[in-house]
Amino acid sequence: MPMPTFSRHALLGGVAICLAMPAFAQQQVDQPTPDNTAEAPAADIVVTGSRIQRPDYEAPNPIVSFDAERIRQSGNTNVTSFLQRVPALTNSLDSTRTAGNAQADGALGQVGLNLLDLRGLGPERTLVLVNGRRHVAGQPDTAAVDINAIPTDLIERVDVLTGAASAIYGADGVSGVVNFILRRDFDGVAARGQVGISERGDAGNRFASVIVGRNFADNRANLTAAYEYYGEDPLANDDRDFLRGANRANFVNLNGYDPARPGSYQSGPVRDLRYPDSSTYGIVDIGGVRYRGDGAIYTPGLRLDNDGYSIGGDDTPVAGYIGDIFPRTERHAFNLLGRFDASDAFKLSVEGKFVQTEVTTFAGYGGNYPATIALDNPFIPATILAAANAAGLQSIDISRNNFDIPRRGERDRRRTWRGVVDAAGAISGHAAYDISYTYGRTDLRATKLNDRLATQFTEALDAVRDPLTGAIVCRSAAARAAGCVPVNTFGANTVNPASFDYYLFDPVSDARIEQHVVNAALTGDFGQFFRLPGGPVQFAVGGEYRRESSRFRPAQELVDNIFYQYDEYVIPTPSSGRFDVWEAFGELNVPLLKDLPFAHLLSVGAAGRYSDYSTVGSTRAYQFNGIWAPVEDISIRGSYGRSVRAPNIAEIFRPRTGASDFVSDPCYLGNRDQGTQFRDANCRALITAAGGDLANFIAANNPNANVNIPGVRQGNADLRAEVARTWTAGVVLRPRFIPRLQVGLDWYDIRLRDAINTASATTIAQLCVDQPTTDNPFCQTIGRASGSGYIDSYVVQPENVAAFRTAGLELNVAYQVPAGRLGAFDLRLVGGYLHRLEQIATPGAVVEDNRDRPFRPKYNLTFSPTWTIEALMLSYNLRWQNGVRRFARITTDDNPSFVDPRYFRFKELWQHDVQVQVRANEGLAFYAGVNNLADQKPDIGFETNVPISPVGRFLYAGARVNLGR
């Protein structure tokens, strides 16, 4: 949409006049070292969530901060894993949730991403900043920042802010902001090395960092360089015996369920779960007699009537398809920071970064569904050959899951470049300027691993016996000359590894994401003109221009669809898109009263931002806030604001692209009572209209029950910006009679409307039949086969149809206790209560209650005491979460016999971590620790990491050198 001439000129004028103020947010709550017990006067700083300098205790928005020492004491070298202990970030995606079979068919470039999800509203609504500035995305077509691109040992602290951040930082901060503050002005040399490994001898990781800095020109200049390496070994599902094969228990719909019979439950845990009508031996059907590929009679597993699985027999085990739990990761990060203060009026700083992350993961196996084999193939067992000849066949079909051909996988290499140039200075004693330019780029190379080329694999399957040598060879002479080695799929573990090189291929796709940001602002106060009883009125005004672009170029082999059967049956489409936005912003802080009876502090503030997008037009965001401290010991704070999120590039520009998804039909007989009161009647209407059999509409009768259904995914150019209303209210206690104690308690409430939502095919199918009638947008995108009524197609695209609401309470306690000869204690407690987390998929739809579900606990806390005595430091960390509900409320409400009460919830999380550190001297320290000391394991079910990852007890050790001055 073209920008109005007046608005564009006004913004250009604002940028030309105003010069940006740096948003280098400082920690809201100073965390003094245990031996530094004196109360120092608070300096005016810039807190995350504002562009105005003020003492930290005057911050109107709730912030939870963790400094570098807390990160080191945790033993985590993956920052996302550390931040998941913050109540607001429990639903963040670490490597365990972006590896293995977490990759959807057709997905590219998502392996190993670490994405922060603030308040459970999605990574797309979480604004990630570095030193108060935007960071380029790590995932194509989105604004989601890969936390792998942020160097661990350069982090000074991390601020997590809840509030209407769009007025300060622009779009995307609907649920809040996570701001990484990096170290600056380092003078000296610092290094750290750490290695770790699980008690079982796997899942090892390695970390090393070096920082070298120097002040010069009478300390008016500094140059700092840093290098960081991180490596992590993969962990496969089958590396844990409790997840392997017949040992693993999953919840399914049980046979023989009778709600009238006491003790009968609809769902329950079942071990040795398998996929029916498939086998690692292969299955051959001749005249209704089913043979295993090795010639024996095929023994089917016990079929589950109302679920797409079986138990035991010769069927393919479900557990074998999980793949990796952790991917293999290797990261190299180079950073260069510099500054030069020519004078108070001109200070120049630069930042440069290059990060390369390479992540590799393997998921499930491929298969033949089926492969047609000529009868002169010498691999055919005698029993099968005799039966085929007796039936007068010329060939046979064999279906097989190929557990003896390498797993399919993906290797993603992300290269991130980022540079910042900033000029700042004082105009007078009451005003300062700052202007900055930020450039970011992410280059992605996504390589699919172990895909079978259709022509070559078919040639390898077509084996004959060489009449001259008697050896079994590929039939085609040209194929033999090219290196073809015959493939035997009759039986288990029969494929010759020497055949792999001929037909396995790794197609390479690439993508590029670019970001340009120019920011300028003028900050200061009106003290030279007037002062209020609480001090001068402070202000910040400025403008920003931002341009984002993304393009994706799939491998030509993927576009040409040259792979065997279902290896890469989702054909990707090249895509590209871009947008730009011009913005003007302003902020005021009005200190009404100060140092008066019942008004130690009283101030109010406001912020606003006007944005004009090339895609969705203009948006407006604002915030009002206030803080009142009747006495020095107590501060009451609150804020109310409007935030926006503009659609990202994928949501608008994605071309019509093939997709696939495993669809669980909500209209199966066993599923009709698991939705709303409308589901049964709507299912009957749809099945009848398609000509299906109502009485026998079960998964066992659906020939496509266990395969992915082809569909379509596309963007939507008619999307609007999302709008959120957020309010917070809290109290901060700093009792003078308990020095060094601070307690923060804050309530938050976020309501999001016109939310952009792209539901899965299964969710769309459920939403279709859970509405009052089938006359709704969801039923229009689900296709059902004529004659059977089973789902055979779907279309998904983002729509402004959803609404979200979340609310809760957070507690933040910090207390430093000097103990004389016993040293000092540093206590930290962060807790959260999730009051609600609701989604309405479309106006009038049933409210989906997502509170108290995996990764979104109702209650959680982290308690982190540290004891320091002379050269010894002992650290402990307890991470606790309540046992979350295993099933959605809509499934269990009004159905007391759905599941045995013992399985209603997952186990609670009780993770105990300990670390001991010994300081050899002022510049050298050694440390060692154990995470998950009690070796807690994940609970049973399809999830492998609820309430904890399956790594188990993890041991690590490291050393730190700091020769800084």
Short synopsis of the structure:
The protein has 965 residues and is mainly beta. The chain contains 13 helices and 51 strands.
Overview of this protein structure:
The structure is a single chain. With 965 residues, the chain is mainly β. Helices cover 9% and strands 44% of the residues. Strand 43 (799-818) and strand 44 form a beta hairpin. Helix 11 (679-690) crosses helix 12. It is globular, with a radius of gyration of 30 Å. Residues 1-43 have low confidence and may be disordered.
Low-confidence parts lasting 5 or more residues at pLDDT below 50? 1-43
The level of helicity is under 10%
The geometry reads as: globular
Q: Which strand-content bin applies to the residues?
A: 35-45%
Radius of gyration: 30 Å
Number of strands: 51
Tally of separate helices = 13
Report how far apart the termini are.
Answer: 54 Å
> What's the rounded overall pLDDT mean?
91
Structural class by helix and strand composition: mainly beta
Major sheet characteristics: 24 strands, antiparallel
Key words describing this protein structure:
13 helices, disordered N terminus, 965 residues, mainly beta, 51 strands
Helices and strands, with pairings:
Layout: H1 5-17, E1 45-46, E2 53-54, E3 63-67, H2 68-74, H3 79-83, E4 127-130, E5 133-134, E6 155-161, H4 166-169, E7 177-182, E8 188-198, E9 205-216, E10 221-232, E11 235-236, E12 249-253, E13 267-271, E14 273-275, E15 283-286, E16 289-292, E17 302-303, E18 310-311, E19 316-317, E20 324-326, E21 328-343, E22 346-362, E23 367-374, H5 382-390, E24 395-401, E25 409-428, E26 431-449, E27 451-452, H6 454-461, E28 463-465, E29 472-474, H7 477-481, H8 500-503, E30 504-505, E31 508-525, E32 538-553, H9 556-559, E33 575-596, E34 599-613, E35 617-631, E36 634-645, H10 649-653, E37 657-661, H11 679-690, E38 709-713, E39 722-733, E40 741-757, H12 761-770, E41 782-784, E42 791-796, E43 799-818, E44 824-840, E45 848-849, E46 859-863, E47 866-869, E48 872-881, H13 889-892, E49 909-921, E50 924-931, E51 954-962
Parallel strand pairs: 4-7, 38-42
Antiparallel strand pairs: 1-2, 3-6, 4-5, 6-7, 8-9, 8-51, 9-10, 10-21, 11-20, 12-13, 14-18, 14-19, 15-16, 15-24, 17-18, 21-22, 22-25, 23-24, 25-26, 26-31, 27-30, 28-29, 31-32, 32-33, 33-34, 34-35, 35-36, 36-39, 37-38, 39-40, 40-43, 41-42, 43-44, 44-45, 44-46, 44-47, 46-48, 47-48, 48-49, 49-50, ...
Helix pairs in contact: 11-12
